Amino acid sequence: MEYLLSPGAERAMTAAQSWAARLGSEIVQLTHFILALLDEEEGRVAQLLHRLGLSPDRLREQLLALPPAPPVPSPETLLALARDWSLSCRQDPQVLTDALLLAVLQMDPQYAAAVAPLGLDLPRLQAAVLPASPAPESAAESTPYPLSQAWPSPLPPPPSETSPRATTTSPTAESAPPPAPQLTLEPIQNAPSYPPPDASSVSSTSVLISPASAAPAVFDAVAPPLPLLRVLDTNCNRAREALRVLEDFCRFVRNDPSSTEEVKTLRHDFARWEQRLPLSLRLSARDTPADVGTTLTAAGEYQRASLEHVCQINLKRLQEALRSLEEYGKLLDPSWAKHAEQFRYRTYHLEGRLLHSSRRQQLLAQARLYWLFTPSAAGERWEWRLEQALSGGVQVVQLREKHLADRACLQLAQALRRRCHQARVLFLVNDRPDLALWSEADGVHLGQDDLPIAQARHLLGREALIGVSTHTIEQVHQAWQQGADYIGIGPVFPSQTKAFDHFPGLEFVRQATAVSVRPAFALGGITPENLLHVLAAGARRIAVSACLSQASDPASIAAQLRALLDSYALPGVNSVDSSGPAPVPAP
Ligand SMILES: Cc1ncc(COP(=O)(O)OP(=O)(O)O)c(N)n1
Ligand SMILES: Cc1ncsc1CCOP(=O)(O)O
Ligand SMILES: [Mg+2]
């Protein structure tokens, strides 16, 4: 649907967004539109209020004191109402600012009731709105509004709002709304290059109205063709929507303030950049019912396997939309297109951050069999043992070296990390965040006497996995509170790997698994023979050392453990990772 907007109405549409941003609102509310209209100091709304004895300043104050207003469902709905009103009362489809005000009040009866006591009483306003000038659009600038008919002195003549988006506009026609950047005039030679500049066709009197600050209007005196506008409008919407989905993911799924902040900043920067393509132009090109794409659906469009999948799809959607904006934007303004490219680069950083960490979290969520590996104890056969364990279905490998020199340990860690990542298996380092960092491990495992979680996190960053050993229920609660990604619970049985005086045993497994929603690995003397007891106590994941490190056939022991573990469902785990961890032999 195409809408014809007066320059004032067009500015108000943009200024409403500025008001929303200025008041810290994520959505444009009805009040923001009224505030935007009040900013048109010499517009029809100002005249209307004057006639009704209402002060714009006082109204502004009162509106700002109101509780949050309902959002505008879509600018299109608002414009459709305003246009309908104009058509029925003025026999003119053009949207003037006063029609916009009436439309705002018609959007929501409760809101209309709330603002009526301020003087914004819909029937009273409707009665006071004057007909528009019958002057043809082309004559609007030169034909004065029929002042003599209706405007009482001492009012200044009403503004010439009767022309649609003007190809040339007087800089003094109406003042800029305060929240938006000041409007200035730029010579058209500096204008964006759609259509390609042709010196002979550029009138010396033509001017480009654009905000002087960081956001000059991207279009110039000649409106771009509708197909181009439709592409840009659609992709601006796609990108903005995808950004919102991603922000929700960072905020509510990941609970991660830092990535939430990153997406939010990107979203705000995008919104500022997007505003350079005036909303009214975009709306004038929008024609959803006629869009041949709305009825086409692709296979899988309505299928999402997990929260991570939603994130992945929306990152792709965002990148595609930005690429399209970049390519088509080149027809409009190369510098505008350049920004689209820069936004796209920022999404790659975000993707690395969200999906890399997601890979780790996904693998951890699926992990049932965790191996504490001491290569130095395996002698020259350590690589064979590693391959065996991987082929048997081990899903996490921890390098647990207590006596090896740091440099040798680092080299081992790097080799293990390479192989584990090839096999899509997590690799962690025991005790040593520094070695975890330098070997690019997926994380570190910390005992109760090792470095605290906060310090390890500081060193390794948010995406690293940090596991913590727990031996009491208090330690379990503390580990979760401090941000552990998983816990070890044990020792369950006497161990050939490490001597213990005290065994929290199966009772602790019961307690710890009952209060844990994140992965908890039972450990200490677990073998295929006693695993059923551990499972019966509630564990669904285990960590083992000796039974794999000392077995003559580690692959078959690992496979037996996996078969038993896999026969119990893991609560709340759904994966999108079709390639999955290392191949698991059939039970
Ligand atoms: C998965 C897992 N759980 C517990 C431990 C034990 O850690 P810690 O208590 O620090 O003892 P050491 O292994 O460092 O001797 C672990 N390593 N892995
Ligand atoms: C390090 C450690 N901490 C608690 S149990 C354990 C060793 C587990 O190894 P194993 O499976 O050989 O008993
Ligand atoms: Mg330790």
Low-confidence stretches: 134-215, 572-587
Over all CA atoms, what is the radius of gyration? 33 Å
Secondary structure tally, helices? 24
Bound molecules: the ligand Cc1ncc(COP(=O)(O)OP(=O)(O)O)c(N)n1, 4-methyl-5-hydroxyethylthiazole phosphate, magnesium ion
Q: Whole-Å distance between the termini?
A: 61 Å
Please provide the count of β strands.
10
Strand order of the largest sheet: 3-4-5-6-7-8-9-10
Overall tally of domains:
3
> Could you tell me the mean pLDDT?
79
Report the CATH C-level class of the largest domain. Answer: Alpha Beta
Q: Give me the CATH superfamily of the largest domain.
A: Aldolase class I
**Computed structural class:** alpha/beta
What summary fits the major beta sheet?
8 strands, parallel, barrel
Q: Give the amount of beta strand, in percent.
A: 5-15%
CATH fold annotation of the largest domain: TIM Barrel
Explain this structure.
This protein is α/β, with parallel strands linked by helices and 587 residues long. The chain has 3 domains: 132 residues, Clp, N-terminal domain (Double Clp-N motif), CATH 1.10.1780.10; 122 residues; 200 residues, Alpha-Beta Barrel (TIM Barrel). The protein is 49% helix and 8% strand. Helix 2 packs antiparallel against helix 4, helix 6 packs across helix 7 and helix 10 packs across helix 12. The longest helix is centred in the middle third of the chain and has 33 residues. 4-methyl-5-hydroxyethylthiazole phosphate (TZP) binds next to helix 23. Its EC number is 2.5.1.3.
Features:
single chain; 587 residues; alpha/beta; Double Clp-N motif; TIM Barrel; 3 domains; eight-stranded parallel beta barrel; two-stranded antiparallel ribbon; 24 helices; elongated; disordered C terminus; binds the ligand Cc1ncc(COP(=O)(O)OP(=O)(O)O)c(N)n1; binds 4-methyl-5-hydroxyethylthiazole phosphate; binds magnesium ion
